[in-house]
Amino acid sequence: MALPIKMILVPMQREDFVAILREMEGMPVTIRLLDPPLHEFLPKDDDEIRKLADSSGLDPERLRQIRNSMEEFNPMLGLRGARLGISHPEIYRAQARAILEAVSELRNEGVKTMPEIMLPLIGERKEFDLLAADIREVAREVASRNGGKLPYLIGTMIEVPRACIEAGPIAAVADFFSFGTNDLTQMTYGLSRDDSSRFLDDYLTRGIYKKDPFQELDADGVGDLMRIGIERGRKAKQKTRNRRAACPLPQLSGRGILEAVRDASTSFALLTSLRMAVSADEAARAQSLLRPTSLACIASAGCRRVQGG
């Protein structure tokens, strides 16, 4: 008999989150929920199928059928991120339970925690509403059994161009933003990061692109989408909180792009590449704004969040 997913996933991830949150005591820890396409986690040959069947109690042939049914022609634009949480809510609910049970366990030990649960690949407010509601329901269940309300935030990574345009409605319900510049670049350019190496040299040689957009952020295209997202997100959040307008945002173009590091998630690798386009003192000032990276920022090492307001 196959075990429910929460009986497999929750104990395993809860142990990880207890260790991470204890190590980061008192610091916010951003945890991105499962994002990669499911096929990356599935067994790839008969030996792996047999081992998974033995450990899960599932029939090997049934596992093979499930694996084959999940193959996609374009997995990076397929069932991943928020879409995975919508189609298979039990996965995100299990991850949320693991996080919140870890928070509860550590609170009983006197350890302060602040998990920031990040929903990936959101492009529509309704997606966020549904997934956040699932997380809050799990939080209420855990809290009711373990002595009161638990501290946590729910936010999203802006990595779909539509999310930049719709940042206002999303920010009205999200606690924080972060920008995923790799996916945002892929979707804005219509390029595959994994396959574009076959022709990017031609574009660079012939002067179509000045730089590889996956090595240096495109300030005029992707950067402008980020600026739109920041401005609309802040405006909506300020309306929600009935607060006065914030100071003007820095322009996300040219030399000023690093001034926006406090407002956008940026990897240290990207920051390094951007130094070629700005002065050394600007780069140093931007890097000083980055706080230490959380070990739990899954698949986004070096990311920095953006508060919605």
Walkthrough of the structure:
The protein is an alpha/beta fold. The chain folds into 3 domains: 1-37 and 74-158, Phosphoenolpyruvate-binding domains (TIM Barrel), CATH 3.20.20.60; 41-71, no CATH class; 176-309, no CATH class. The chain is 48% helix and 7% strand. The protein is built from 13 helices and 5 strands. It has helices at 5-23, 46-56, 60-69, 82-87, 89-108, 125-145, 161-165, 167-171, 181-189, 200-205, 222-240, 268-274, 280-289, and strands spanning 28-32, 114-119, 153-158, 176-179, 306-307. It has a 5-stranded mixed beta sheet with strand order 1-2-3-4-5. Helix 1 (5-23) crosses helix 5 (89-108) and helix 5 (89-108) crosses helix 6.
For the structure shown, list the relevant keywords.
single chain; 309 residues; alpha/beta; TIM Barrel; 3 domains; 5-stranded mixed sheet; 5 strands; globular; disordered C terminus
